[in-house]
Amino acid sequence: MPATDTTRGPAGTAVLPALRFENVVKRFGDHTVLDGLNFEVAKGERVTLIGPSGSGKTTILRLVMTLEHLTDGFIYVDGDPLTHELRGGRRVERRPKDVARLTTKIGMVFQQFNLFPNMTVLENITEAPVHVLGRSKGEAERRARELLDQVGLADKAHAHPTRLSGGQQQRVAIARALAMDPEILLLDEVTSALDPELVGEVLGVLRDVARSTDITMLIVTHEMQFAAEVSDRVLMFDQGRIVEDAPPGVMFSDPGEERTQAFLQAVL
Ligand code: ADP
Fold first, then answer.
1. How far lies 89's CA from each of 11, 24, 66, 78, 130, in Å?
2. What is the pLDDT of residues 123-166, one digit of tens each?
3. What is the CATH number of domain 42-64+96-267?
């Protein structure tokens, strides 16, 4: 299908998908992780990737964040080729400044928080808005304080991340991602590194983000209850392929594929 495929928006206007994978191939050495993957995420849609460990879910998020090099194929953000495009019938890399323009639309929250340990919470959140988006320090700090309030950490603005619990650090990481006003938010097993009693506070914040914004979300999680609550669609992966693509009500109660049934039986 061509990259210009569209769906219709509410007013009959053409709306491009927020994300589109076209024949995406990813190899690490001679290990092929993704072998011609195709899927789309509509604007505002929340899509969760589930499946066994090693099936390529995190690699998909890292490709969108341009943290991994795309071996072949194309990824489109709002219809715009992200890292590679067809020019004169040849697949060529895009210029770094074109890639950067698109990656500023994308935020990611990692399993291991990845906060800057030598900066305060406030500095962590304002760094990119000031240096990447060119916002004034005052404006960035105002927004950061609003976001800290939203994630329940208004009193931690001047703390250093190492003094915070894992759950608090992850809430700062969520605020940091939101401070860039992303159109697309990638969540990579954001509760997997947390002690069980800290998982709830992080999922609570994410439920709130899902409810109160129209940010497109691509989520990798083992928290099936959370996936069921926030997702519009769930994609079951196995060995780099989509085994099943269904709304959560179907995926979690009445999956059509044996592979999905076996996986869910093992994890639920
Ligand atoms: P999942 O998120 O579904 O657990 P991943 O995307 O993390 O799966 O990994 C998919 C496969 O790619 C695994 O076999 C993993 O070992 C491999 N892989 C991921 N990152 C690298 C890397 N940087 N170098 C080599 N192999 C990798």
1. 35, 17, 23, 21, 39
2. 999 999 999 999 999 999 999 999 999 999 999 999 999 999 99
3. 3.40.50.300
Q: Whose CA is nearest to atom 6 of ligand 1?
A: 56
CA distance 246 to 116: 38
The set of residues, in sequence order, having a beta carbon less than 8 Å from that of 20 and lying 6+ positions away, is 3, 5, 39, 40, 41, 74, 75, 76, 79
C-beta of residue 141 within 8 angstroms of C-beta of residue 122: yes
What's the CA-to-centroid distance between 237 and ligand 1, angstroms? 13
* ipTM summary value: 0.98
Whole-Å CA distances, 149 to 6, 153, 175, 203: 38, 6, 9, 16
Nearest CA to ligand 1 atom 18: 28
What are the tokens at 47? 């899509």
Pocket of ligand 1 from Cβ distances under 6 Å? 28, 33, 51, 53-59
What tokens were used for 11? 């007013």
- Whether this model's pTM surpasses 0.90: yes
Q: How far is the CA of 57 from the centre of ligand 1 (A)?
A: 8
Using the Cα atoms of residue 56, residue 58, residue 64 and residue 65 in order, give the sign of their dihedral. Answer: negative
- Domain spans in the chain, listed from the N-terminal domain onward: 42-64+96-267
Q: Within 10 Å of residue 195's Cβ, how many Cβ atoms?
A: 10
